Amino acid sequence: MASDLDFSPPEVPEPTFLENLLRYGLFLGAIFQLICVLAIIVPIPKSHEAEAELSEPRSAEVTRKPKAAVPSVNKRPKKETKKKR
User: Fold this and answer.
1) Which residues have C-beta within 8 Å of that of residue 71, sequence separation ≥ 6?
2) What is the rounded CA–CA span in Å between residue 33 and residue 41?
3) What is the pLDDT of residue 70?
4) Distance between CA 30 and CA 36 in Å, rounded?
5) What spans are recorded as compositionally biased (Basic residues) (predicted)?
6) CA–CA separation, 23 vs 55, rounded Å?
């Protein structure tokens, strides 16, 4: 009776090209997500040079004037007189 049992491994077909492509694509996507999450969690100190550039005003920004707010077309203009109650 012990001779009737077959302990050989089951036959598994080799994965196709598309299955391999999907498998490795999923691995790469998971690694990319881990890198993105770590980039958010782990703060990277800024270099001293980058801070110096940000503190200096740019010549183009100094000459610009702030634009007036453009009223949107959908909103009605406010009445200048107060309502009498």
Assistant:
1) 77
2) 12
3) 60
4) 10
5) 75-85
6) 48
What is 11-26 written as a DSSP string? P-PPP-HHHHHHHHHH
* Between 10 and 30, the higher pLDDT residue: 30
Share of the chain above pLDDT 90, in %: 33
Tokens 């740019």, located at residue: 58
- For 10-70, the DSSP string reads PP-PPP-HHHHHHHHHHHHHHHHHHHHHHHHHS--PPPHHHHHHHHSPPHHHHH--PPPPP
Separation CA 60–CA 56 (nearest Å): 12
The residue assigned the tokens 């920004």 is 61
Chain position carrying tokens 């100190």: 45
